Amino acid sequence: MSAPVVDVWGPVAPGARSSFPPAPEPHEEWPLPGGTAWVYYSPLNRRQLIRPVILSDGFSGGSSSLDQLWHGLEENGEFRFISELHATGRDVIILGYTDRTASITDNADTAIDCIRRAIAERVGRSKLVVGGFSMGGLVTRYALAKMEQDPSLPDHETSIHLSYDTPHQGAWFPVALQAFTHFATDEWGDSPTLGPVLRQFSGLLNSPAAKQMARWHIGKVGETPKPASERVAFLKALDGLGGWPRNLRKIGVANGVDTGTGNGVKPDATAVRCDGETLHDTWLKTQAQGDQQVARLQKTGGEPVYVRTSGLPDIDGAPGGLFTVPSPAGDTGSFGLAALLMTLLGNTVDPDVITTSCFIPAISAVAAGDINDPKALYRPITPAGSALDAFVCAGRNEGHTTMTEELGSWIVNEIVSTD
User: Fold this and answer.
1) Would you give the end-to-end CA distance of the chain in angstroms?
2) In which element (H, E) is residue 93 found?
3) Sign of dihedral through CA atoms 80, 254, 412, 57?
4) What's the pTM?
5) Rounded to whole angstroms, how far apart are CA atoms 103 and 243?
6) pLDDT at residue 37, rounded to an integer
7) Mean per-residue pLDDT over the chain, rounded
8) I need a labelling partner for 367 at 20 to 30 A (CA). Which of 18, 70, 242, 256 fits?
9) For residue 64, which of 115, 132, 128, 119 has the smallest C-alpha distance?
10) From CA 323, how far away is CA 99, in angstroms rounded?
């Protein structure tokens, strides 16, 4: 599996890749409030910004890394997305953020500044293409809608908004995983060795961006899974802007299939279980419908804590983009990351871990239904059911924001077709 454009866990995950080969020196670098834009002119344009394509980074820990973004976009082993855009005369602007966990609305202001700079630097009158990967699609969606509705802002002069495996209808962080992370942080967050990792991981799940994206969130063990107040406020603000930018064409892709075929993860299955020095008979289960006990958490020598859910869909196995994290040891996914943390805490993990699960359901990525509806999750997706003007889904359920020829070439063709 090739490296994703956006690594969900980022530097927080133990064993994650710490560095990437250096990206080529950008032709221009634009410092922006809250971020940076790196400009790569098409060789056809003689270092002039003529046909700008802005590609926004998404959700992860810390600040954006140009080297990592370039690697996912261009050196992924499957499709050289930037080179293909350059070959059509498009200039690529990679947009990164100082804090990828910050509020979507805050980073949208950075995106607006990037759009304004691109318009000011552009030679000629060609319309912009603006979009992003993962949360970056939401950031730019909000930014463009705001530019249409706020009279103090200029026309965005954009013809296409593109989104790549973006959680338009919400993302799924397994409740069992959230609970284990917060439980481990409460118990061992002060440890000089693993404590910093646990605190960062728990903080990532409790960050403004994660709360806005997650369809169900818990801030600590014992809370009822539901949309965080930050998500409710974000959706209200987005709705106040009309929900979507309107004066352009909306296109998107999903790293999941449109056939309704799941990824093979069964509901109510034990995803990971451990026993050992610090944890006793601790396990996490995949999500099932109805009332369910999704986790048993017990510090060795302590009392067990049970985590229950009610009314959630069987979403871990739904078609969609999968959790991924590139590392020398392989993809630890979602429950696989919990298994790694359990091991680092001095415990023996049972074999046959269900390492990964759905992160962005396909119907969320192409805005084609409510991910709270178990039937909609597994129903074939049709163009009539999507809020997008055009979309394509992957031929298999693959890693979130994996760049493939199948999806990348479709986007390039859609952009060219607007000429």
Assistant:
1) 34
2) strand 91-97
3) negative
4) 0.97
5) 17
6) 98
7) 95
8) 70
9) 132
10) 21
